[in-house]
Structures are given as structure tokens and as C-alpha cells.
Amino acid sequence: MSMKKWGGVGYFVFAILVMFGFFSSNADAEMTTSFHGLFESNLVIRDINGMQYGFFDEAYGVQQRNTLKFDVDVYPDIQWGSFSVEKIHLTYRGAYDSIFDLRAHAFNIRDNIGLSRFDYGLRDIRFENDLREAFIDLAYKGDLGDGFFRPGRQIVSWGEGLLETLNDVINPPDMSYNLFFQNPDDVKTPLWMGRINYSIPSMSGFGLNFDLLWVPDIRPTQNGPLDGVARNPKAGFQAPFVSITPFADLKGFSVRERVPTNENEYGAKVSAAIGERLNVSVLYFRDVVSDPNGLKLYLRTNQAEVTHNKQHVYGGFFSYQFLVGSFEAIIRGEISRYTAYPISLANPRVNPATFEATAFLLKPVTKTTLAVDKDLRLRWLSKDLTKVTFEWLHKVINEWDNVLDDPQIDKTGRVTGRIGAVKKDRRNIREADAFSFQTSTAWFGSKVTPSILLACSPGKHGDGTTWMLKPGIKWAVTPNMYTDLRMQAFLGDANASYGFADGIKVASEVTLRLGYEW
């Protein structure tokens, strides 16, 4: 976050402190606090041609990020009958990425893009100085149940998909500084919002919770510096984590985000605990789509305009404890329906009158997951429990458009062996599946924790299967100090129209992390 964005946060923190001082002077308060955080140094090495074309034979450093993050929680113990000021929470994160100094020649990024508050420049991704969360909990506990009102800058997660976001659409992703191996909350953009959470009084075998959100802070997915330089196709887009996004093909275009900041997002989730084993939730969210769902290319002027439209997200999820004799497992599922999901066109449509190109269609899309979580006692592997998860993800474009059937032509003959042959048929993205297996265990008294995630998207309609491989191992050197080594690789048919194909040639990475937490 650049310093110019501190204004709103500063006013909010000041208001919290004034409120706290006023309440403390009018109540018999006994304040307690907690302070915890971490310092972490992270090195990322990327194989720029993909692992299956030579194991890290073209490897380069793309990040050396040093992060300080800490949380401060204040519990004022201020009460008026059933009401109280329960908690004041602040989260700070500061970072310095030295890769832009160690490999300054590799990244041609201007210090500041500056034409809108969503434009990032070198200063934004080299340094971070961000009061990420700042909120206060005004709580109620009484005969009518319990709940809280939480105004402030915060992160809210709905849903729990393993491979892909289904219902967790509230906070837009921040892809400007890392792609893999992050705590999910660390790659979300906190938003100013108001949240009300309320639970009815507990009953025998039944509980009901309501979660209501109002979000006036509208922000897009943050992809890092997106600007071309003086229409030079070899300049711009050199930030290490932008180079493998869909914007990588827009070198030389001056990209601008057109975000409807006058809109509001809002939503509600209702969750029910039925008996001791079943939990069910249904939700609705009025969403300003954070990912680009409109991209117009003004080819005459080398301008690219990214737009973000509105849509409705409907969904739900369940979790059930399956128990038969001594066999126990958790079965969970999730479903989401998007009314205007952006579908990228293989061949953008060009308006001959204006010479503008449109690169997305907005279509209703449904995503579903079904998963099983199981703890196994495998003595040959570990003295501790081994956690195993199987998940199936299914995606459907509910309304088809003939333009999505446009074939891609092999203009050079390198893929099919024949110039002008159809390289792939876009119809095979109408429905797509992915299957994943994840496991983790513990060795040496839980000091070493290896894990692996393996996922595949089966090939069909002429495309081959694509795979994602994600092994890792974490070592707790002391109770506070740790080191973490992980790898991310994609394998299979690099020309497939779906699945993990986009990362096969560009996104094999190894991450080494050293940290100290308290």
C-alpha cells in the first residue's frame, strides 16, 4: 500500500482510539491485549520454460521478499448489560522485495504508474507498508442469542474449496507479489465493510447463524504493474508475477482499470447446525467482479481498457461427519452459480467500425465440489495421524455461445504438423473437471511435516490430461523458528484448452521460506 492510501485507515484508527478513550472513562474496564506476528524471508526460483521441458534448466530468481507481519488485539472488557466492546483488532504488514535490486536489469517497471488508485508501479511491489486490518467488535450476548457488529477494514471468507474459489468471492485476490504457497488470507485484499453476525439461542440439536455484509469498498484483482511504456512491445509487464497472467500478451498496451467504485457489494449467509454431525449453509452475494470481465483493445492507439461489471453469486456448502463403527470421515460439498462469469475468447472479436477488440463473454457458470477428509493411522509412515483429502471439482458454462466454438488454427504447423489445421476446439471448455489428492503427516515429534498435493484435469475432445504437482516439507527448527521448502509444477498437454495447461510452460517454481513467529 502506498502512503497516499493511509488517510482512510488513519482516520478509522483515530476514531477507534477516541471511542476507546470515551468508553474507558465511562465504564469499569479491565483491558487485556495480545500481540503476535512473524518475520519471514522468502526466496522464489522459477523455471521459465516449465519442468517437463527440462528440470529447472532455465531457473531464475523472481522474488526475495522479507516480510514483517503482526496482529494487535485489545480486549477492553467494556460492558453495558448484554452489550460490550469485545475486541479491537489491528493487523500490520510491511515488506521489502530485494529481487528488484538484485536483478534490476530484468525488470523494466516504472516507479509509479499513477493514473488511478488501482495502478501499481515498482514502488508498490518492491515495498509494502500496510495496515491491512482495522476493526472493532461490538458484541451482544443475551436471552435473544449472541452476535457482533464489526465495522472496519477486514477479510471475510465464505466457502472452503481446495482447488478453486467457489463462494469465497468477497475479498479480491492480490497476485502482485506471489502466486503459490501463501496463507489464503495473505493473498486477499482487505476491504472496508460492515459485518453483522448473529446466532439464535442454542437449542437441542439445532443452531442457526446469520452473516450479513455491506461492502462499499470496491477493488479489482491486483495483478501488479500492467502498463506498457511508450507503445514499446518489449517494455512494461516485467513484474515477475504478472508475466504469467492473461495480461502477459498485452505488452506495449497502456492498460487502465475502469472500476465502478460508485457501486456497493452486499450479501448474506445462513448456516445451520443440524444434530451433531451436519452443517449446512446457503448464501447470496451481489458482486462487482474483481477479475476482468471486459477487455477492450483500442488497436489504433495501443490502449487496453479493463472493466468490471456486476453479477449475482448464489451458493451453499455442507459438511457431514460420516461415522459407522470405528470408521470416521468428513464428507463436504460446495456449489456456486455465477450469473455473469467472464469467459475468455480464444479469438477476440474486432469491431471493424471502431477497430476495437472484445476479449470476454459474460456467461452463467456453475461450479461444484465434493470432497472427503480422512485421518489415517499409517504406522509404516508416521507415528502421528496422516491427513488425506480427495476432492472433485466440476465447472459448467450454462449458456453456450457459438463464438466459443471458434477453432484455433495452427498457423505455423508446429503443433499439428500441417499449416492451417485446427489446433484445438473451444467446445471442450464447456464442461471441465479436476480431481485432487492431498495428504500431510508429521515426523520427529511433529517437528517435520511433509505434504503433497496432486491434481489432474482429464483430457477430452482431443485434449490431453493436465496435472499439478505440489510437494512440500516444513521443519520447526525451534518452537518459534521454522523453514519451509515447497515446489509447484504443472505437467501434461501444454496445448489443452482447460485445466492446468496455462502453467505448464512457464510456472514451475521452488519456494524456500525462513521465518520466526511469536
Description of the molecule:
The chain is mainly beta and 518 residues long. It has one domain (3-517): Beta Barrel (Porin), CATH 2.40.160. It is 6% helix and 51% strand. It has helices at 6-25, 99-102, 122-126; strands at residues 32-47, 59-75, 78-80, 83-97, 127-142, 145-154, 191-199, 206-215, 254-258, 265-274, 278-288, 294-298, 303-307, 310-324, 327-351, 356-376, 386-397, 408-410, 421-424, 431-440, 448-457, 466-476, 481-492, 508-517. The strands form two sheets. It has an 18-stranded antiparallel β-barrel. A two-stranded antiparallel ribbon has the order 18-19. The chain is globular, with a radius of gyration of 25 Å. The two termini are 24 Å apart. Residues 1-7 have low confidence and may be disordered.
